[in-house]
From TrEMBL:
Top-rank lineage group of the source organism: Bacteria
Domain DUF6265 residue range list: 39-142
Cleavable signal peptide: 1-19
Key word Signal present: yes
Keyword annotations: Signal
Protein's name according to its UniProt entry: DUF6265 domain-containing protein
Length: 164
């Protein structure tokens, strides 16, 4: 009976996490939205994810660009960081980011970005293709779809708003 209950909880948790992340179909147009509607994301956020500690900082939107940074460390050691830009592109926007190792060597090529296209915007939530951010009070949950060796998983990051 214990195995059944634990299996049921695990199945529900996995289903919930997978349902949080939306995907665009191959030929589907991105959703419509305005970067300025993401003012709820502004600020300094700290929390956990990837088995370690995380921080994100988001600045107010200026000229259709909302700039952010991310850093992840584990056991007191910086593992990687990101430079992020939510960019207005006509009636839609996308999240573009570059990853950097602790020594600032880049993951992406010089002229390449990891890009998340907009699926939809909701009140205090934004859904990108493979990435969701939702704010509830002074907390933000982020769900990221990852695929490695053909296996899709969802990584959940949980943040709390902090003062600088």
């Amino acid at each position: 009976m214990k195995k059944f209950i634990l299996s049921s909880i695990l199945l529900f948790t996995c289903f919930f996490a997978f349902s949080q992340v939306k995907q665009l179909d191959k030929d589907q147009e991105p959703g419509k939205g305005n970067v300025e509607d993401l003012d709820w994301l502004e600020g300094f956020w700290t929390g956990t994810g990837f088995g370690g500690e995380c921080e994100e900082v988001w600045m107010p939107a200026v000229d259709g660009n909302m700039i952010g940074t991310f850093r992840f460390w584990s056991e007191g050691k910086l593992v990687f960081s990101e430079f992020m830009n939510i960019v207005q592109e006509g009636e839609t926007f996308s999240l573009k980011l570059k990853h950097f190792n602790a020594d600032l060597s880049p993951w992406e090529e010089k002229d390449k970005w990891t890009t998340f296209r907009l699926v939809e915007v909701a009140e205090d939530a934004v859904y990108f293709h493979g990435l969701t951010m939702k704010r509830v009070g002074d907390e933000i949950n982020l769900w990221l779809a990852l695929t490695e060796d053909g296996v899709r998983t969802i990584e959940e990051l949980k943040y709390v708003k902090r003062e600088f």
